[in-house]
Amino acid sequence: MAKAAEVRFYVDADILGLGKLLCTVRNDVTYPGFAGGDKMFGRIRPACPITSTEVSDHLWIPETARRKWLILTRDSAIQESTAEINAVRESGARMVALVGKDARTTWEQLHVVMKRWDRVEQCLDEPGPFIYALGKASFRKVDLG
Asked: Is there a contact between 54 and 14 (Cβ–Cβ < 8 Å)?
């Protein structure tokens, strides 16, 4: 029997196309509504506990933090999103937010994420809470203050 895959990345509903795409090449990625059960590299990925794309930030952010998943999301105004910043800070979540007009389509999002994938993976070793803003030419920490 195949072992369970270890999920390390959660791709938010606002970039669902990117999440589905990453799931075709990596067994450590999940997204809201992912049914699980696919076998990749000898491992079976479990179903995502966030079962719908309609789940509110104040519910899914703490759940991903509890599981120690790194969140990938798209929020061009992350610095002004106080509710999201508060949810990250209070739960100890770790988040990388795609920002800027260069990450509107799934193709553009893939380009931005792959360009900085090594840096994104380094975030797995960093304790939360944090948010990094990831743009085509930038990777900077967002002030959670």
From this structure: no
Please state the φ and ψ torsions of residue 71, each to the nearest 5 degrees: -90, 135
Please report whether residue 39 resides in a domain: no
- 1 in a structural domain: no
72 within 8 A of 119, measured Cβ to Cβ: no
User: Does residue 66 form part of some domain?
Assistant: yes
Q: Which two tokens stand for residue 23?
A: 């799931």
pLDDT over 70 at 77, yes or no? no
What is the model's pTM?
A: 0.93
Answer whether the bond into residue 129 is a cis peptide, omega within 30°. Answer: yes
The chain-wide mean pLDDT, for the chain, equals: 91
Would residue 40 count as lying in a domain? no
Closest Cα partner for 60 from 45, 73, 75?
73
User: Strand, coil or helix: what is 116?
Assistant: coil
| Structural domain boundaries enclosing 66 | 8-29+55-141
Q: How many domains does the chain have?
A: 1
